[in-house]
Design a protein that fits this description.
eight-stranded antiparallel beta sheet; 19 strands
Length: about 375
């Protein structure tokens, strides 16, 4: 054998031996197995999270935990939807790695994983940056989640990366539908009420104590009726029930700047107040204001809560809570109950919801019928 051929074969043998050693090396095999299926953020202390920041090219949302509740800090500190926050934290902590690889700038852009910045030419190339911090501002998580337009749902592929690294992880969780605006993180229900505890509803002109009409339960557990209905006229029960149920179905789409609108309606046609009196003496006063903007089917409302001992119905009140707000405990979405003290409960609830001007949709607005004639079936309108 020629010496040149021998040297070539010897070199090939050394390369093969080295490759075999590297492939079979125990440490490398263990590391590969550990990465596949491993939780990316297994040590994330969920209970220490006090700030959540979500940033994209178009928007930035900041959620903060104040001493009592989570709020949308980037939107007037309005109460946040705690269930969404809890679900996000659990989902982030449970992320498991499928595979990983290094991604250069062009690959990150193609996967929608570029760090969001205002000077990004293609917004879809940048992902959603998620930062979690504790009470002292210490960073717990800093990830970039793939832009939804770049997510391949059919292939069940979703990618994330740590912001300070170009290491890309294919993970088992999909964040394509994560909320990206302030409004989506707001608590849509400012309060919850037990409709069975509503005794009566008075509709009156703003500034006038005399009701235009009154809907009332004849007794506890009975359906409401309209008082003083003319003889021989058929009441539209569905309309009566609609007004009675409107408070319990009150959902919002947004809130206006606190203090921007007073209690007075700018449109005289909307200068009405609906007083919902509960058996325990609690009274919710719902006040329609003006439209948000011309041509938009969205409306402004104020809601205040008081307690009137004279309005309490001894035979109807029970130990069930009349109404509740979105107040959360430190680690759960429970509410602060003061059922044994309705006056204190009403005061606390009003403090939290009475300051806001709510933006509601057309269907929420339509439930508050202020025209007495609409409570009767067509062609049977009573005289005023």
């Amino acid at each position: 054998m020629k010496s040149k051929t021998f040297l070539i074969l010897l070199a090939l043998g050394v390369v093969l031996a080295a490759a075999t050693y590297l492939i079979s090396k125990p440490g490398i095999q263990a590391n590969t197995k550990k990465t596949m299926g491993q939780a990316l953020l297994a040590d994330l202390p969920i209970n220490d999270i006090r700030t959540i920041e979500l940033s994209s090219v178009e928007n930035r949302v900041v959620l903060k935990k104040n001493p009592e509740i989570w709020v949308v800090n980037s939107h007037y500190d309005y109460p946040a939807d705690f269930s969404k926050i809890f679900d996000l934290a659990k989902k982030i902590k449970a992320i498991k790695i499928g595979r990983s690889f290094k991604g250069e700038a062009d690959i990150l852009a193609r996967l929608g994983l570029a760090t969001p910045a205002k000077d990004v030419k293609d917004p879809a190339a940048a992902g959603l940056r998620l930062k979690l911090a504790d009470k002292d501002g210490k960073q717990l998580v800093d990830l970039v989640l793939a832009h939804p337009d770049k997510t391949n749902s059919a292939a069940a592929a979703y990618y994330v990366r740590k912001t300070d690294s170009n290491q890309v992880y294919q993970v088992d969780k999909n964040f394509k539908f994560i909320e990206r605006t302030d409004q989506e993180w707001m608590a849509a229900r400012p309060f919850e009420v037990d409709a069975e505890q509503i005794f009566k509803v008075d509709c009156r002109r703003a500034g006038d104590s005399k009701p235009l009409f009154t809907l009332q339960r004849p007794e506890k557990g009975k359906d409401p009726v309209i008082l003083d209905a003319p003889a021989g006229v058929n009441v539209d029960k569905s309309k009566v029930d609609q007004v009675f149920a409107a408070l319990g179905a009150f959902e919002i789409e947004d809130v206006e700047v606190p203090g921007k609108h007073g209690d007075a309606a700018t449109d005289d046609k909307r200068a009405y107040v609906f007083d919902y009196a509960f058996y325990d003496g609690t009274v919710f006063s719902v006040k329609p204001l003006s439209r948000v903007a011309a041509g938009q089917d969205r409306f402004l409302y104020r809601v205040t809560v008081t307690w009137d001992a004279k309005a309490a119905q001894p035979s109807g009140a029970d130990s069930k809570q009349t109404g509740r707000d979105a107040k959360q405990d430190a680690d759960t979405d429970k509410v602060d109950k003061k059922a044994d003290d309705p006056a204190a409960q009403a005061e606390a609830l009003n403090k939290r919801i009475g300051q806001w001007t709510y933006v509601v949709s057309q269907w929420v607005n339509d439930a508050f019928i202020n025209d007495r004639a609409q409570l009767f079936k067509k062609d049977e309108k009573p005289s005023s």
